[in-house]
Amino acid sequence: MEGHWSLLVLCHFDNTDCSDTKKGPRMLVLDSLNTAGPTRVQSSIRRFILDIYKTEEREESKDFIDRIRLEFPKVPQQNGEECGIYVLYFIYCFLQNRKLAEVIENKGLEEDFSQLFDDGSFDPEELENFRNDVHLFQANRSTKTEE
């Protein structure tokens, strides 16, 4: 979908052992419209990671990058117009919600993240408050730039 935002989260990229069941690297795509299916974005994401590795002069090969687990967890859905708010909210959850970070830290590669927010870490009221804060911030910025 043109103009749609989703979030790519890179986990355990300091570990180069893809066979490590607890700490191996993995990628999560959080898409509040559920439009970023594996076949649609996988090659672009893997090219992006390869470019990062080349820029950092890391030695990992394309074969290694192809073995990194790429997951598309079920995340709260939005109305089709607020993907940016959801991306910011997902970032906020990862930065502020230690419980969510612990879920990622403790899951092994054999486990999936399909129910990432089903542990009670998603609160619709908190999202609504977050949305209001973002809109208030935008309104304040607009007022200041007009002055």
Automatic annotation (TrEMBL):
Matches recorded under InterPro entries: Papain-like_cys_pep_sf, Peptidase_C48_C
Keywords, sorted A to Z: Hydrolase, Protease, Thiol protease
Keyword Cell membrane in record: no
Entry-linked Pfam families: Peptidase_C48 (PF02902)
Residue span(s) of domain Ubiquitin-like protease family profile: 1-94
Gene Ontology biological process: protein desumoylation; proteolysis
Gene Ontology MF terms in the entry: cysteine-type peptidase activity
Family matches, as PANTHER family: CYSTEINE PROTEINASES SUPERFAMILY PROTEIN, UBIQUITIN-LIKE PROTEASE 4-RELATED
Similarity comment: family membership: Belongs to the peptidase C48 family.
Name of the protein in question: Ubiquitin-like protease family profile domain-containing protein
Species the sequence originates in: Brachypodium distachyon
Gene: LOC100838227
